[in-house]
Predict the 3D structure of the following.
Amino acid sequence: MRNWDREADDRATEHLRWNTWTDTTDNHKMEAKFNGVASAVVKLTKRDGSEITIPIENLADADRTWITNWAKIKDAALRAMPPAVYLADLKPKSSTASAPKADWPPLAARSFYAPPDESVAGQGKPCYSLLVHDLPQGYQLLTGEAAIGDIPDKTVRDKHRHDKKVRGATASPLVFQILGDGHLLWSSKPLHNKNESESFLVDITRIGELQLRVDCSGDAGNARAVWKDVVLRRNVATILASTPTGVAPSEKKSHHKH
């Protein structure tokens, strides 16, 4: 996949900064963040966290022009971005995952092991792995699978001296979690058996920091935790819903904006 234009990406997210908004009379001003447009109504977030809506026609010409220009820049940035990016192609900001063992089988492209840190196993402490990513702007969905890798079956002898094949499994169940900006977005059921998996589709709109976590509450033996085909995706419906409508193009430049 080709790389997107990060400079265009930054320009398209300029609305995340604080701006001063003015009405048509030039008598009322307010500092707020732009939060999109729908049905010719602009959405703004004030310093106290409250959200308000204002008809675009009530804004000064410079603000209306800024919104129009923002829509054009955003459209150009989105066109320059690939519709999907594999998380495996992005460098994590940090990782506490243990290195996979040499005898573990290789994974398909863009899937990766994230085994919990075994150094604390047996010390009465829960062990985990944590991968942290700063997300690029413009993606709304995260899809993929949490899975247990391929673990060899083993043969055990029962009390009647009969050999019995036991399916490969982790020593303790693993729980996969996805967090965004410190908040839990998705959690798997406990996974235990080899090749057991659970798929996910998570809304990552406005998420800045993504965390992939794998928890192991007991023995971390054979903890072959795998994140499979984790992909950042653009949700076209969401993008269209946030595109300004009813804004008349104007050549007048803003004097109090960027």
